[in-house]
Design a protein that fits this description.
- It contains 2 helices and no strands.
- Helices cover 26% and strands 0% of the residues.
- The protein is elongated.
- The longest helix has 18 residues, at 6-23.
- The protein has one domain.
- Bound molecules: heme C (2 copies).
- Residues 28, 32-33, 49-50, 53, 61-62, 64-66, 68-71, 73-75 line the site of one heme C (HEC).
- One heme C is lined by residues 28, 32-33, 49-50, 53, 61-62, 64-66, 68-71, 73-75.
Length: 85
């Protein structure tokens, strides 16, 4: 049977505190531009975004934009009312 020493309990507590602290950090979405509340941004799925926001489409992304497809992770939408999805 393993016995935990006092130092082990302190370490376990510190790990829990770090995990809680990280989970309370602001999500990146709070800092990035949100989708404007225009009709074209309502009721969309992520795969719809690239219809307009891709090279050669009506509203291409800037060159230094991250090349990721999980748009909602970083951009809040007008339908989300500021909440976490
Ligand atoms: C029908 C075309 C169209 C689709 C589909 C579309 N957008 Fe847009 N988007 C635009 C246009 C046009 C603008 C500029 C609107 C303005 O500035 O008023 C814009 C602006 C934005 C902006 C704000 C840019 C800034 O400078 O603040 C974000 C963020 C954005 N779109 C994200 C998305 C995401 C995420 C999706 C998918 C859910 C999406 N868009 C789907 C056309 C589209
Ligand atoms: C890792 C986070 C992240 C993801 C994922 C992401 N974006 Fe962005 N996006 C940003 C940041 C940060 C900016 C602001 C960049 C800047 O100011 O240069 C931005 C800016 C934009 C803009 C404004 C561009 C402009 O003309 O000023 C649009 C539109 C946009 N993103 C659409 C999208 C779409 C569509 C997707 C999914 C295909 C997406 N984003 C995924 C972080 C992200």
């Amino acid at each position: 049977m393993i016995t935990l020493r006092r130092a082990d309990w302190l370490f376990a507590g510190a790990v829990v505190l770090v995990i809680i602290g990280v989970s309370l950090l602001p999500s990146p979405r709070d800092r990035n531009p949100a989708m404007p509340a225009t009709p074209e941004h309502r009721g969309l799925f992520e795969k719809d975004c690239v219809r307009c926001h891709a090279t050669g489409q009506s509203r291409p992304l800037p060159e230094r934009h991250p090349g990721r497809q999980d748009c909602f992770r970083c951009h809040k939408g007008p339908d989300m009312a500021g909440g976490k999805s």
